[in-house]
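User: Reviewer 2 asked us to show a designed sequence for the structure in our supplementary figure. I'm pasting the structure tokens here. Could you produce the per-position amino acids so we can include them in the response letter?
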């Protein structure tokens, strides 16, 4: 939020699961030793670890006779090198291809071994023996970096409803192209809706924790880290984590401009190193297109740098944009290059746009001439965002009011049902500490009654 803030802001976000990740390849050690060529006919296949300037990091390059050659990371179950991962069932990887490819995931199921495989074709062919085919679409071979995330058990059950995933063992590929950031994630399906709340400081943390844990649904708490050492949040996260999952916001919009690019990168690493065991989702920036955040070129560079560092470690990423480009009164932007949709399309890299996990919108009517968008307007906005960020979940990142009826305002925004398959709610009432802590305040009861109906 662009209003002045206190030392710590925390927002609460409702999800249904904690998340962990195992990294099998991020190419940062310069090695190819984890990979092997399993089909070298014709005998010109090669594997190299190369630096990719557009990503500012390394990736694994495969060159040979297209899909006639095959490469493997891991091994078949029971053999040396097999992952034998029985916990994490969502596979995620980044790739860049400009021609046909086939990516196989070797899994063990209750019905035996299976290859769940993915191609750039338009239509899925389904099950054929031990092979299950899933189409990713033609755009996955358009020579841009893309991040793919697939719940393997969901893909298995689509064609074998009574089968169950036992373990994930290997990642195999046919085709010429680049691969990076191969991870397995313990990422169960999230709730249909996300309901967010905000705290403005961590004083009286026990009273705040009591208000959160007494809500009728488990939440995920979004902690907005201030300009202090990461260790300052250890106690708060320790007390919150038994009762809520954590989403950490690395940079609030108020102080993005206060960091150089190098200092920005160092802060990201510090917080990831300190709190990776408590934070399930990392928000790489807030209201990044706002005019108060600094030079838009520099802000974009910082946002992309934070995204790369979080992604290469295998964690989930989120980004909040500031909605300011509605048509009435030509929006509430100061400079045209800060318009939300134009900023996102023109400033962010294809890698980020194709790989970000969550995109949220911050919007305050009182900051924008009390413009109250219609349902049709919001559906148009989220449809545009789904085009810009094709693999992201979408929602409201921040709402709230200090000048209007709080009950009416809360019910209005939390009551939206947006017709978009990527929409997951959000809302994030920004004044939770003031309005709902302690839990005997009337707006806490209003919100809890709302949750009980969902």
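Assistant: Here is a per-position design you can include in the supplement:
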């Amino acid at each position: 939020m662009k209003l002045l803030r206190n030392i710590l802001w925390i927002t609460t976000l409702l999800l249904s699961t904690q998340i962990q990740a195992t990294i099998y390849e991020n190419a940062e050690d310069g090695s190819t030793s984890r990979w092997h060529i399993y089909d070298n006919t014709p005998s010109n296949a090669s594997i190299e670890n190369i630096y990719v300037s557009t990503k500012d990091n390394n990736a694994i390059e495969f060159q040979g006779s297209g899909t006639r050659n095959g490469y493997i990371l891991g091994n078949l179950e029971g053999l040396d090198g097999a992952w034998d991962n029985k916990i994490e069932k969502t596979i995620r990887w980044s790739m860049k291809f400009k021609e046909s490819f086939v990516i196989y995931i070797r899994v063990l199921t209750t019905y035996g071994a299976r290859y769940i495989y993915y191609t750039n074709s338009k239509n899925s062919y389904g099950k054929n023996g031990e092979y299950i085919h899933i189409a990713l679409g033609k755009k996955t071979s358009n020579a841009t970096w893309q991040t793919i995330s697939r719940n393997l058990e969901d893909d298995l059950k689509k064609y074998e409803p009574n089968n169950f995933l036992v373990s994930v063992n290997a990642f195999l590929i046919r085709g010429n192209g680049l691969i990076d950031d191969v991870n397995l994630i313990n990422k169960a399906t999230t709730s249909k809706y996300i309901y967010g709340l905000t705290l403005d400081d961590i004083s009286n943390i026990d009273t705040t924790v009591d208000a959160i844990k007494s809500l009728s649904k488990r939440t995920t708490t979004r902690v907005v880290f201030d300009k202090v050492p990461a260790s300052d949040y250890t106690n708060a996260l320790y007390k919150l984590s038994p009762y809520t999952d954590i989403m950490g916001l690395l940079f609030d919009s108020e102080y993005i401009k206060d960091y150089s690019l190098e200092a920005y990168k160092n802060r990201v690493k510090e917080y990831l190193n300190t709190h990776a065991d408590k934070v399930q989702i990392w928000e790489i920036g807030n209201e990044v297109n706002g005019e108060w955040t600094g030079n838009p070129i520099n802000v974009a560079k910082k946002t992309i740098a934070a995204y790369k560092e979080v992604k290469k470690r295998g964690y989930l990423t989120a980004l909040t944009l500031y909605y300011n480009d509605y048509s009435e009164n030509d929006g509430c932007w100061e400079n045209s290059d800060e318009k939300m949709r134009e900023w996102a399309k023109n400033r962010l890299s294809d890698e980020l746009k194709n790989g970000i996990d969550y995109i949220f919108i911050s919007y305050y009517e009182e900051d924008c001439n009390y413009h109250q968008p219609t349902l049709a307007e919001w559906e148009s906005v989220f449809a545009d965002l789904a085009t810009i960020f094709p693999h992201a979940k979408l929602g409201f990142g921040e709402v709230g009011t200090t000048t209007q009826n709080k009950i009416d305002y809360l019910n209005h925004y939390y009551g939206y049902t947006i017709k978009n398959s990527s929409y997951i709610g959000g809302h994030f009432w920004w004044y939770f500490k003031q309005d709902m802590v302690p839990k005997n305040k009337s707006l806490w009861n209003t919100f809890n009654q709302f949750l009980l109906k969902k």
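For the response letter, you might also mention the following. Residues 231 and 274 are 7 Å apart (CA to CA). The longest strand covers residues 165-174.
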